[in-house]
Amino acid sequence: MRVRPGGEWVSAVVSEPVVTGTVTRLVMWPVGKPESDVVLLRDPMPSAGRGLSGGIHVWDNEGRRVFVVTRTDGIVEIPVTDDTPEQMRRLPFDVARSWSTPAFDYMNRSVYAVADWNELWGCHADSGEPWRVYRAAGFALDAAAGSDGMCVTWERPHMPWTQSAVYPDTGRADVAVQQPRFSTSGNSFGYIDDRDGVLNVRILSDALVDRDVVIADECEHGGPTWGPGQRSWSFNTDGTKVAYTRNERGFGSLWVYDRITEERFMIGRAVHGCVSWENNTIAALRTGARTPQQVVTYDVSHLSQPVRTVVAQGGDDMWSTPEIDAELIEPSLHDVDNNGVSVPYRLYRSTKPPYGLIVWVHGGPTDQWQVTFRPRIAFWMSRGWSVAVVDHRGTTGHGRAFMDALHGHWGEYDADDTVAVLTHVQRTFGYRPERTVLMGGSAGGLTALNVAARIPDAVAGIVLSYPVVDLPELMRGDDAFETHYMPQLLGASHPDDPILHALTPLTWAHSIARVPTLIFHGDKDTSVPLIHSQRLQNVVRAAGGTVQLEVMDGEGHGFRESRSIIREMLVTESFLGRF
Q1: Is 312 inside any structural domain?
Q2: Domain end residue (candidates: 229, 249, 275)
Q3: Count of domains in the chain?
Q4: Is residue 517 in a domain?
């Protein structure tokens, strides 16, 4: 998502599911006239961003050229004249590599991008061969461009949310940095960091303001860096103002900070991503519990009275019908005390019988399910299931200390907190154990299994997607991005560490066997291989339990094909129909 310089057009990659995957195209819409879209690129297809992240395309500073990361042709340039795309040109970046987050320098001369998550490259847009700016010893993401290239970098055993820096700076110990960027004018530079315990925007001193400024807030302004292109904040064109998002305990809002007057203005509610600002136009992806993902613009000619326009809306038109809209509700926010730790959760309460409860645990475990549009939740609510979404220790969005509290205790504290939430919801709202189901994917699967092992009589079933099960196997893994993080999360020094015995669900198969279990797992999953679910199935069956394992052909860590998602929902509905 980008506002084209000049502020009169907004561009974004549109993804549409088909039976065999996803079709993408780059589209731009005139501000104020959303029905008049222009397709900038469909062949080769642009890459697709992750969630509310972007990192796929960038405009030059005059809005005359757009540079796009494609699936097959590396990075291409599309000249735009009189709002009409012209002949595409491929930049001489190596097409065999994986590229992300193109950035254009303020001198309107060079494009920078990150290759394969570890190298920063530059290329003169008009002529010349690419040159390597920097090769990280560990990882690199999210290119930025001033007079030269910059990027976020971190080294093992750290993760980007535990300790990272903006190259060429060396960073600070135990400080995470993300989203470095310049204003279009090139006058101003800033980023988000958590040196004060919360991910807040930090703007460096410049000709406009002669001191570093932190937009100090109890709310986080960004999420964990699970991939490239997160854009939860942006300068305006001249750098005098900043648009930023707030994570308000899972809910969201969009704000503007005036660097000159130090005033703050609330621009809109709901979760926003891909934030971009040129002239008087702020654009973003917007979503909420009752709002399918939208491309929106805000006219901020008068900051105290912003005007929102929906430029485009994703999802099926059925979500806008009165009948379906009546099914969508905002969750309520709650806290439960777990031995002195306040554990938040959000409860989506169904008003339909037979009044069951799903306790849903997010993956990561360093992550969070904000209040975004989730058709799965709407689906289960329409069938009488309320959904409690748990923010156990380790969840992001609540500050660095809450996130770090899980270190050395994954498999323990997350389960403790989820047990506390499940028990609290049942006692407070009257849900019965025989109508309570645990759901979790990946790391959330580990938590769900450990909860069931502790309180098998409190739940009727477990539904898992590609769950982490065998912790020694996980520590022996070769996942470049995460394996090195396991000792810090688990507090174990090696795969044979005795501590893992108590944390792995395989140890507690005799208890888990008391709860019927449904598992979905892709046969191409390299992050959590299928062997995890197969071993769980074997030991639980040996203990006398029932496990239904659905192997998803051709799928990896997360299901992408429509047929797989449909199958998952239908099989799960049949499973839940037993309770």
Answers
A1: no
A2: 229
A3: 2
A4: yes
Identify the pLDDT of residue 140.
98
For 375-399, b/e burial (b = at least 16 CB within 10 A) is: eebbebbeeebbbbbbbbbbbbbbb
In a domain, 212, yes or no: yes
Is residue 320 domain-resident?
A: no
Give the pLDDT score at 49. Answer: 84
Beta strands in 399-546 (DSSP E): 436-441, 461-465, 517-522
DSSP 70: B
- Residue 536 sits in a domain whose CATH number is 3.40.50.1820
**Nearest one of 409, 436, 559 to 492, comparing CA atoms:** 409
* Consecutive 10-residue averages of pLDDT for the chain (579 residues): 95 84 91 83 92 91 96 96 95 96 93 97 91 97 93 97 96 97 94 98 96 96 96 97 98 98 97 97 96 94 95 77 75 97 97 92 96 93 95 98 98 98 97 97 97 98 97 91 94 93 95 98 95 96 97 93 91 95
For residue 108, the number of C-alpha atoms closer than 13 Å in the C-beta half-sphere is 9
pLDDT at residue 323 in the model: 65
Q: Spell out the residues 6+ positions from residue 328 whose beta carbon is closer than 8 angstroms to its own.
A: 289, 290, 319, 378
pTM of the full predicted structure? 0.95
Three-class SS of residue 356?
Answer: strand
Decide: 381 and 350 in contact? Cβ < 8 Å: yes
Between CA 389 and CA 385 the distance in angstroms is: 13
Q: Are residues 395 and 531 in the same domain?
A: yes
CB 59 within 8 A of CB 66: yes
Please indicate, yes or no, whether residues 216 and 364 belong to a single structural domain of this protein: no
Using the 3D structure, point to which of 213, 229, 245 is the last residue of a domain.
229
Question: 73 with 213, same domain?
Answer: yes
Q: Find out whether the peptide bond into 224 is cis, omega within 30 degrees of 0.
A: no
- 8 A C-beta contact, residue 419 and residue 361: no
Q: Is the peptide bond prior to 331 cis by the omega test (within 30 degrees of 0)?
A: no
Gap between the Cα atoms of 422 and 439, Å rounded: 12
* 338 plus 224 within the same structural domain: no
Which CATH number goes with the domain that contains 36? 2.120.10.30
With residues binned 3-state (H G I as helix, E B as strand, rest as coil), the percentages for the chain, rounded to 5, are: 20, 35, 45
d(CA 205, CA 189): 8
Domain that includes residue 45, residue range:
2-229
Nearest Cα to Cα of residue 489 among 410, 571, 400: 410
Q: Which amino acid is at 204?
A: L
